[in-house]
Amino acid sequence: MKISLWIVFVLLPTMLTVNANADGPPQSPPSRAVFESTRPVNRTGKIDRLVVDSLDSLGIKPVLCSDAVFIRRAYLDTIGTLPTATEVRQFLAAPNTANKRIRLINRLLDREEFADYWAMKWSDVLRIKAEFPINLWPNAAQAYHHWVRTSIAQNKPYDQFARELLTSSGSNFRVAPVNFYRAVQNKTPEGLAGAVALTFMGSRADSWPAERLDGMAAFFSRVGYKPTSEWKEEIVFWDPMHESIDAANFAPGSAVPGKVAELKTNDEGSSSKQRPTMAVFPGGRKVKISADVDPRTQFADWLIRDENPYFARSIVNRVWAWIVGRGIVEPADDFRHDNPAAHPELLAYLEKEFINSDYDLKSLYRMILSSQVYQFSSLPDSKQLSDSKQPDLKNGGVALMAHYPVRRLDAEVLIDAVNQITGTNDLYTSAIPEPFTYIPRDQRAIAIADGSITSPFLALFGRSARATGMADERNNKPVPAQWLHMLNSSHIQTKLERGGKLRNIFTAKSLPRKKIEELYLTILSRYPTEDELKIAMSYPKTRGKFRWEDGIDISWALINSTEFLYRH
Amino acid sequence: MNRQPNNPSQAGISRRQTLRCGAVGATGVMLSGGVQGQAFAAEAASAKAVRSNAKAKTVIQIFLWGGMSHNDTWDPKPKAGRDYTGEFSGVISTNVPGTQLGELFPSLSKQADKYSLIRSMTHGNNGHETAAYLMQTGHLPGERLAYPSVGAVFSLFKGRDYDGIIPPYVVLTKPQGRFSEEGFLGPKFKPFATGGDPNAARFAVEGVVAKNISDDRQKARRRLLEKMDSLGATMPQLESAIATKEEAYELILGRGKEVFDLSMEDDKLRDRYGRHTFGQECLVARRMVETGVPYIVINYPGGWDTHKNHFQTMRRQVPQLDQGLAALLEDLSDRGLLDSTIVWCSGEFGRGPKVDWQPPWNGGRNHYGKVFSVLVAGGGFQGGHVVGASDDKGETVKERPVYPVDLLGSIYTLAGIDPHAKLPHPLGVDAQVLPQPSETVKSGGLLTEIM
């Protein structure tokens, strides 16, 4: 019954689409078995029990993904990197034990690329960018990224990570976390408070009542900035006596001594004259600002504790959103009373576990990545297909948890994957040529420190502008220009034609079907089905006789397939 | 059962919606940057700032990067002496009595009734990038915000009602650089740079026309992709990806590509435009005007930053500028398109009226933003006039100064865009298309005398 329904819902629209697009013959039905596993969902962990129970009550029976889907998904989500053909072969050939997938996760969490990939995600949040509009400047951007990456590689406890960002003082070159207060466009106390709320409380201060923001801003009213005689060095410090130039007057880009730009918006404000003496925690408690204690420390003490209603909750939600593709509160940085969690018990459970682990981020990753929920299939079931235009949000979005959400690969991950497949690389540059922006040719895009170092590809495919630090600053929505680039640009075509790796596959002394198989393992991280082999084998004009050009076209089709372009 | 996900009419509507959301107009230049919500709200508001009955539908901007000498071209001073005229002391009379051009413009002199010359353009800035920023945005460089260029502003305001296949803001062929792009509007408003060379046997427009791939192979590939896309076929939620891919293919295999196919033009007409890159760029620009592309930039293929070898460079480049620009104006006029198309041509500044004979320049001209010339035509600008004047040597504004806000404000006004409309800033910062005149932002008023 399920199968026949599925044919009605899947195949029919498929044929319509195909006929609308081109005059090709209708395609053979894709094999669900390629993407899904027959293994039943078990409820070993608490995450699984919570989610599967909720889905049960809605009558939804989730299905697990296949091993081939899992290895690709796990690599992309854990280390932002595509598995190689060899890695795929080994994983698929390994005995099908219950721990097979969990062992893979454990191996991935120890990889070097883990730190690269998550430093990239954090750099979006922390706005690590040398030039406009953040203007950290190249040296500081590198120092900041290095600190973030090292913290991740060492698995620094998250409470410590946050405390260092919130309370450090010193040079932007030498005490890298002070750059947190520099990487804000609006360096008024309100602007800084907004950045803190977004980063560590998952809350957008522009939706707050004004007095709440003012109360919190007071904690950041003693942040001082001053230049040094070293080029583009800047000291961030606790400034109770107000010795520094007014932060608000300190226009980005004026870290050069003696050059302070004026700001129109500050004409009436004169916040420098009347600085607040009372600060108010977002919970309502008031505290006096004294000359003895850095108020940033007072704020950090309030924020970073187990009972704080924002701190742990916002980070577990952020990590869930990063890995599973959709926050329990979504967008992940928009906690509001009128934006409820899809599954409050799950959020509370993750929060509790995270606090119990002493803010151990890696064990949080491990917990989520090892769950069955993470392994849910991305294929819509027949019921969802018929409702595809209106995803069911009635049940607080819990129903959406039944499927791993399909998302296009991030710009950096996508180009790294294309380069890995073809054995090519890209050039990344900054508009401002400086020594710190020199990038070796084999640098991977996920490891780029500075958001100002870029390429046309990264810009086109929606890499975060790192201007606000908001989660939706990264944009993976498709636009035609991206298709023009993937389908038909000289950039991609040159990679396919000149890249040594694809050529090696095609010039190897092996049967054509072996070559196709190797392409599938390299690009889609799985073996082709018999049907797919047939399609590929019949592509050359002289059936079965491959020219190099045919190899390019088949590779081209695979990298332009949904299966390659998307996490699924 | 009767709720077919791919019901054609539904699909059609939602595809259009997708495009509205995902892009400007049908093809949308580039991806969108972040903070969509606010941007859309402001975009929606911006629709009100556009008059639909505006005269100018399209703009062609010919940008002479580096800065072209005004003395040697459109503001000749034949009596100023050799220190000023250098090697070009001759002038040509035009078909408008009383108006003369430098000796290098035999073709343009026959079209003078179609354009007006501003000879009192001024901003006083002598740095390439800062001056270019001024001429492209109207805003003073060094402010906290990086404003979008005039093309990006057109893309924002006019792109909404434009549903052509070609992106709304196109640059032939290479982008102008970082001070003439989308500013804070985000990468969605970046210009689409064609790449390639329209004077080559095949104009290889990046992403649209691939150099070594025949149409047959292109079609075979597309069929192969459709057959091999097993997962995509099961994913109705990826409809916008499919819709945008179809849009891309309309460019690659459909009508879009034809716009760039100059072999469809008469050989004689192609000769008239000139068989060089600039001439053929002008011809492509006209073809884009016919499809309604709101803003087209021809980034002149060759620099005008003639500190050295000034006179040689002028002898080489000006005849091509003369031929291409004259042919464009005449052709647009013949086809009745000039009334709805603004053509403007200028560098970021002029060049020193006094020749630098001394080493190391040995006969060059330096940057000069104090006074220079701009050509404007069509779209509501009257032809045959001269606005303002420089002094006897071309060193200062003698009468009627025209500042960047005046020039850009006039272009916006003719296109029906309110020059002081609000721009959507991702952080909600108050920002306008052009700054209000003030002590620092000087204005001589819109070019009403020729509008």
UniProtKB/TrEMBL annotation, chain A:
- Quick one: signal sequence residues? 1-22
Report domain DUF1549 positions: 46-184
- List residues of the DUF1553 domain: 296-538
Which key words are in the record?
Signal
PANTHER family in the record: CYCLOINULO-OLIGOSACCHARIDE FRUCTANOTRANSFERASE-RELATED, F-BOX DOMAIN-CONTAINING PROTEIN
This chain's protein is named DUF1553 domain-containing protein
Question: Native species of this protein?
Answer: Novipirellula herctigrandis
From TrEMBL, chain B:
Q: Where on the tree of life does the source sit, at the highest rank?
A: Bacteria
Source organism per UniProt: Novipirellula herctigrandis
Descriptive protein name:
DUF1501 domain-containing protein
